[in-house]
Amino acid sequence: MEAKRRIAIEAMDRVSRNLASVQERRASIEAELYRELASTDTMSVTELDCRCHRVIERLTAKVTLARQALEQARIAQEQSTAALFGARAIWAKRTAASQKWRHIECDVQRTTIARSEFVAEIETEDEVLLRYQSCSRSQVLGESI
After folding, report:
1. What is the DSSP string of 46-114?
2. Mean per-residue pLDDT for 49-71?
3. Do 87 and 1 contact (CB within 8 A), yes or no?
4. How many whole angstroms separate alpha carbon 99 and alpha carbon 92?
5. What average pLDDT does the structure give for the chain?
6. What's the number of CA atoms in the CB half-sphere (13 Å) around residue 74?
7. Range of the domain at 26
8. Inter-axis angle of helices 45-144 and 2-39, to 10 degrees?
9. What is the predicted pLDDT for the residue at 134?
10. pLDDT at residue 6 greater than cutoff 80
């Protein structure tokens, strides 16, 4: 996602530079045409004006295409940025869930160990009680005989 975002940013920068270049070229050609219009006596004013309009229309079309490319690059950058933030949010949620599961597993393990120790203590106490009871019975039986 980060790579797509960087590519989109680079594309937008490249398109921006291209748009600026096309606009500069248009301005310089327009100025050149008007200089030619002012200095030429061989062409009629109408002919030079038509030529100037054709060139300006072509350059305007190029500028329009460059602006459209810039807009598309901007949209692609916004989409890649949104996708990156979405992926980061998902990653953060997954990380939090993983940590919670690790905590739960640790709690289960501690509970299991504590239960095993408790069961062992009960069994030990039961054995002691059984011995005590068997000793007490034999003493009681021995006294009654």
Report:
1. HHHHHHHHHHHHHHHHHHHHHHHHHHHHHHHHHHHHHHHHHHHHHHHHHHHHHHHHHHHHHHHHHHHHH
2. 85
3. yes
4. 11
5. 82
6. 7
7. 2-144
8. 170
9. 73
10. no
The tally of domains found in the chain comes to 1
Phi/psi for 74 (5° steps) reads: -65, -45
- pLDDT at residue 65 above 90? no
**pLDDT score of 90:** 92
SS3 42: coil
CB contact at 8 A, 10 and 73 = no
| Residue 27, token pair as written in the block | 């301005």
**Residue 131: C-alpha distances to residues 83, 121, 122, 140 (Å):** 71, 15, 14, 14
Vertex 118: Cα angle to 113 and 121 (nearest 5)? 125
DSSP 145: -
Per-residue pLDDT, 144: 56
Q: Is the model's pTM score more than 0.70?
A: no
Residue whose pair of structure tokens reads 């019975």 in the numeric block: 137
